[in-house]
Queue: 2 jobs
Job 1
Amino acid sequence: MITVHHLEHSRSQRILWLLEELQLPYEVVRYARDAKTLLAPASLKRVHPLGKSPVITDGEHTIAETGAIIEYLIAQADGALRPAPTSEAHWRYVYYLHYAEGSLMPLLVMKLVFSRLGQAPMPLPLRPLGRLIANGVGRQYLNPNIAEHLTFLDAELSRHPWFAGPDFSAADVMMSFPLQAAAGAGGLADYPRLAAFVSRIEARPAYERALERGGPFHLPGAS
Ligand SMILES: N[C@@H](CCC(=O)N[C@@H](CS)C(=O)NCC(=O)O)C(=O)O
């Protein structure tokens, strides 16, 4: 039986959702974040040494890293939600499976980290300097880069309704978390197709069933 070690308000939401889309049986072990640091509890390190979420166990297998877990689950479901290897959609699918965590998430995580610079627990006298650095990095590097990515992604969705092509695929599941995080961080008002994508995925019955299994899902800064 597949067990999802699910940290609240985290990337493991994607895994619960994919399992619901694939209609594979699974169980959930829930982990709460530390109220102060928002980090995962140490008990998650008993499942995988890095103690990050998501991680799944299935018999003798322990698999971490969202993209790897998605590949594992798609294999269990005989390739469902993966475009045929001979299709053009397949290479877009592979691209987005890597792109979401490899290119887009690092920018969004940096934005979150820098947004906390200049706040507690930084000593009070240093906070103005922290804010100055955070604003500078945001203005010079993070904001223009994030805008460039979101512009690219919005244009992609003008060509086809889903990231890999005409059909919903696991690439859309992979892309959900960064776009939900982007929505929370700065809003997607300038990117109507991305905003519509987030609304469309959150309305899917499987997405709603995943929320029932995993509990509420809110990202920092998200409304
Ligand atoms: N690239 C990894 C990132 C894993 C990751 O950083 N997960 C976050 C949750 S969204 C986490 O476990 N944070 C808690 C912590 O670092 O203690 C993946 O996609 O699985």
Job 2
Amino acid sequence: MPETGEPDSAPLLRLALGFGGFKTMAAALDLGLFQLLAERPDQTREEIAVELELAERPADVLLSTCVSLELLLKNGELYRCSDIAAEFLTAGKPRYSGGLIRFFDRRSYPEWQHVGTALRENRPTTMDTEHRNGRRTVEDEQRIALFWEAMRAMSGSVGRVLTELVDLAEHHKVLDLGGGSGSCAIELCRGHPQLSATVFELPHICPVAANQIRAAGLTGTIDTLSGDFHADPGLPTGYDVMLLSNILHDWDEGRDRELLRKCLAVLPSGGLVIISEMLLNPERTGPPEAMLLSMQRLIETEQGRNYSESEYAEWLADTGFTDIEVIRFTALGANGAVLGRVP
Ligand SMILES: C[S@@+](CC[C@H](N)C(=O)[O-])C[C@H]1O[C@@H](n2cnc3c(N)ncnc32)[C@H](O)[C@@H]1O
């Protein structure tokens, strides 16, 4: 390329068009492109256009763009899914994450239109604030379904990774605080047959978890308990593991420290608390996906933001937990966990 004295603007343009990459992926998912190529790989543009009922021009642009985004591979005239699309964007695969993409597309994307207001006014701009803060009981069915579809993909991934990486052999009963649809508890109990679990949730969420537990065939192993971990004076006893998966990021430090104190108060000696989150690095400068989810917390919550592994480690130590350990991993719903034990 000839020297022009012009600074390289490509990184800026790529960042500025980040929304385009996302919307292209979401549209391709909705059109069924990845599903089609997962079921019948190595098709030509013409064949794909016929299947998806697209005219030649949009089919051409979409397929080439998906190749540039590394969602598709092109070999000669034939297209197939890349590893990312095959693993995460194909229904029926264990790590299928289409629900999360749809959630970001239908809910988060419009909400980010108001990010400037959230920044200037230090308040959430989503319509769903009351639900997230646990006060709302009647919800629009489609919105709920979308939220839980996304959550299932995220917390299932966390449960699978925690099952592999955390030594739970000596533990027996898990209280999954704000366990949502129960996906995390389901994976933990599948991976550790000696474990049983309780999904502790707001009353209107318990039936969501109960349905999923039933569908997983784990009704005798996992139950639900309705409660409010902030308003209730204490947490239920009889558990030796407290799981906080994507809970603390919704609240401020004071509330989080209080919840950790409540955990310590009911855990036995040797009991374990697991904080699983999209953790920031100790300098709180990244990684970008954790920072962007922190921005999302500004839009969605009154007090939340993502915290660093060092912040959680410090809160656990201050609360009285010992043997604090940070484990890092890659999962859709978290990039690490901070563990603490009761002395
Ligand atoms: C971001 S979701 C995390 C769900 C799940 N733990 C996961 O990892 O996917 C937060 C959950 O906390 C629940 N929650 C919020 N406030 C709560 C409260 N005061 N008591 C109990 N659960 C609460 C919400 O209903 C929601 O399911």
